[in-house]
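U., I forgot to send this yesterday:
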Amino acid sequence: MKLYDCQMAPNPRRARIFIAEKGLDVPRQEVNIMEGENLGEDYLRVNRWGMLPSLELDDGTVIAEAPCIFGYIEALHPVPNLLGNDPKESAMIQAWERFAEMSGMQSIGEFFRNQTPALKDRAVPGYKGVPLIPELVERAKKRAAYFYDQIEKRLGESEYLGSGRFTAADITALCAIDFGNAVGLGIPEGNENTRRWYKAVSERPSAAA
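Result:
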């Protein structure tokens, strides 16, 4: 297997952490998103959508999208379990993992992209010709505030997001929040449940992946 990666981007990091939690050593090939390498002919032959991460299997099959990579790797390496031990737990993990991506990572991405000159015609990931809309920066702040509010409440009920233990939901939320920290949209003051959780998950060895 080979992971097509971008060290600075949150989505590929989700896959790196998941792989690290499984104790696997998967070779990686760096693809520079900021320079548009993901939209070049070479990478589009790997992933026609121009998105990262991608997992290339030994037979040439390419699995795109972090959650799909999670599912493939978990099926091959079920221990430690990160996607659920039964249908109920699996559904809860999937719900919070999806929320962390849709409401957390995407809102922070919207905040970052729509004020970053280097992405002036790439306001939407994966293709060119989409102009920045500066007005969306304020909307993104509101979306991120909702994300932080919801996980603060959830982490007042549960030690971790999707279950009572560390799972894929926590991986995606951690990557979203570290992305937020990097671009000036981090955990709000007073969100102590989130800060307790964030400290715990950041101290896991896999967080350095």
